[in-house]
Specification:
The chain is α+β, with helices and mostly antiparallel strands. Helices cover 27% and strands 20% of the residues. The chain contains 6 helices and 11 strands. Helix 1 crosses helix 4 and helix 2 runs antiparallel to helix 5. The longest helix has 17 residues. The radius of gyration is 17 Å and the shape is globular.
Length: 273
């Protein structure tokens, strides 16, 4: 796959509200395991964010491509995209619609680390898997990248431009909504204003909220399009499933947090010496 250069923007680093929970995740299907990592039908690694087969294809603090989002866009559009289309039909006002999409993700996903849900420290779900679990049970569990991926796809289905943004140890969503006046910060992406931060990991968060102490930090963003990636022929490998991990909940730092944090923090220390 051809890599595209992601876009640097000046926004805030926002800390996710970590609410440990007991997960009831539906096992993902059509997965296979190789080299200790889990891959899907598109040969996307679900247990690693970096590299050409990682779910975010992270190569540096300025270069990434959220390839897992394209499992649910374009010719792959399914449950999550249709949810967004439903909001477009029900809410003609652009600002109200954007708030309703945001509230859906915030209220239907309960924050939980992947280690608490699955038998992996990191496991990214695509937007349709999250949406299907919500449709089946009325709610589901996820961590920051799960919120970000679902929101990015739903916003596209609802008729907006959307982007995924990476911060040190965190992922969130941006939605292009220049007319929105309730955000505490309007952001610019590649010099274009009117982008609003969508951080749904906290139960009391609202669309556009960003804590002041994190504003002005240089982050990377990638605007998603309606492109789709092509599913591969079933690999000649033994299939595997990823199921709920039983036991107590706890806060754990995943490899995703470590990789992203190091990419931002090391250059920052060099500049400030």
């Amino acid at each position: 796959m051809k890599l595209q250069q992601s876009i640097l923007i000046s926004v805030a680093v926002i800390l996710a509200v970590v609410i440990p929970a007991y997960a009831l995740a539906t096992p993902s299907e059509h997965l296979y395991k190789e080299g200790g990592q889990v891959f899907d039908d598109w040969d996307v690694c679900r247990t690693r964010c970096s590299g050409p087969d990682g779910f975010f294809q992270v190569f540096s603090k300025t270069e990434f491509r959220p390839v897992i989002a394209f499992e649910s866009l374009g010719g792959n559009a399914d449950e999550a995209y249709r949810l967004g289309q439903g909001f477009a039909q029900d809410y003609p006002d652009l600002c109200q619609r954007a708030e309703k999409v945001f509230a859906f993700a915030r209220d239907k996903i309960r924050y939980s680390s992947d280690a608490d849900q699955f038998r992996f420290k990191e496991f990214a779900q695509n937007a349709d898997e999250v949406a299907a679990a919500i449709e089946e049970k009325g709610f589901t569990y996820g961590d920051c990248e799960d919120y970000a991926i679902l929101l990015a796809v739903m916003y596209k289905g609802a008729g907006y431009r959307s982007a995924i943004v990476l911060a040190p140890g965190h992922a969130a969503t941006l939605v292009h909504l220049p007319e929105y006046k309730r955000a505490n910060q309007s952001l610019s992406l590649e010099g274009e204003p009117g982008w609003i931060w969508a951080e749904a990991t906290g139960g009391n968060n609202y669309l556009g909220w960003m804590p002041e102490q994190y504003m002005g930090t240089q982050l990377a963003a990638y605007e998603v399009s309606d492109e789709a990636i092509t599913a591969q022929e079933p690999p000649d490998k033994h299939p595997t499933t990823v199921t709920q991990k039983s036991g107590g909940a706890g806060v754990q730092i995943s490899p995703f947090f470590g990789v992203i944090a190091l990419m931002w923090l090391l250059p920052l220390f060099r500049r400030r010496r």
